Amino acid sequence: MTIIFDDRRLGEKPWEIQRVKRSYPEGNRPLFSLLQILIKKNSAKKVPYFDKIRVLQSITQFASQETSIMARMYYDTDANLDLLANKTIAIIGYGSQGHAHALNLKDSGMNVVVGLYPGSKSAAKATDAGLTVHPVDKAAAAADFIMILLPDEVQKTIYKEQIEPNLSEGNVLAFAHGFNIHFGQVVPPANVDVVMVAPKGPGHLVRRTYEQGEGVPSLFAVYQDASGQARDRAMAYAKGIGGTRAGILETTFREETETDLFGEQVVLCGGLSALIKAGFETLVDAGYQPELAYFECLHEVKLIVDLIVEGGLAKMRDSISNTAEYGDLTRGPRIVTDQTRAEMRKILSEIQSGQFAREFVLENQSGKPGFTSMRRQEAEHPIEEVGKDLRAMFSWLKKQA
Description:
Blueprint: E1 2-10, E2 17-25, H1 52-63, E3 69-70, E4 73-74, E5 88-92, H2 96-107, E6 111-116, H3 122-128, E7 132-135, H4 136-142, E8 145-148, H5 152-163, E9 172-175, H6 179-182, E10 193-199, H7 203-211, E11 218-224, H8 230-240, H9 243-246, E12 248-250, H10 253-268, H11 270-285, H12 290-299, H13 301-319, H14 322-335, H15 338-353, H16 355-365, H17 369-379, H18 382-391, H19 395-400
Helix pairs in contact: 2-7, 4-5, 10-11, 10-15, 11-12
């Protein structure tokens, strides 16, 4: 991975600061290239004394700042799909992501098989779509490139029992999320490539945009490069599913796993769900109609999020009323307080330390008693009943169903 850094140095004039872009291989960033102090002996200006220790501390601090990293996106011309020609790609699982990956790769001219457990309801769907379906162990044995698209909690067992015994030297083992590799649930042999290709969108969107000649931005990473071609193979796979049409970004298994879990827990799922419910409960407890509370705190979330996705917070604020924008800027910070930020950092620490992963793994090993109870309680929340009744009245939703 090549990272472009925005280095700062003194220019030709004694105290003129310049910015220069330099590219270094990851992990090989020369420390003192960050700050070059060019002092002209014959300068008309007096050069102040620099304490060497303080200068070194400043350079070290600057070197640790990751905010200067400029990410690079890769596109169709950067990836070579020929690397997967005459190879068999096994898609293990045929759910939201599985069906999209399999069909997109098939339409890209790849030889694709689908691995499913005997009796899977998805087998008929895959067969009807023109795909060859095998039991997981046979699909793995027949494949050169194996993409595991199963729920995180079942990957370890399926891998250990049906995939690992059928791996061959030179195979590629791929994932769309780094959880099981990063937290040591799946430990691959040293003679296979281990990569990740993770579309940043649900499977139906990955498929629909591909059919429209577009794609969904994706992440890719290499955990283990046994062949010397792991990175190129991952990029080729990303091209096969349409990712390079939109752009793919290189990351690591650790970075993808930890940021993905953090985003889900703090913002996208956990944070947003808790905020919606708290707003709904506050209005209802104050005597307002539950239906109005639903509209204000849940229904309109999509309208706001669509604007943010299209043009960031700036477009959203440009599209709402001045009253709404003023309320956003003056009241929003009172919701996300220093205590909230401290809790965010605590959650991130739990992810980084493996505490969350351990908790999740043990919960599933014990039969999901707590998980099942929490699901039941959430399904019984008043906002669900109100929403169900209201959505049944939406004619536009009926047309989409």
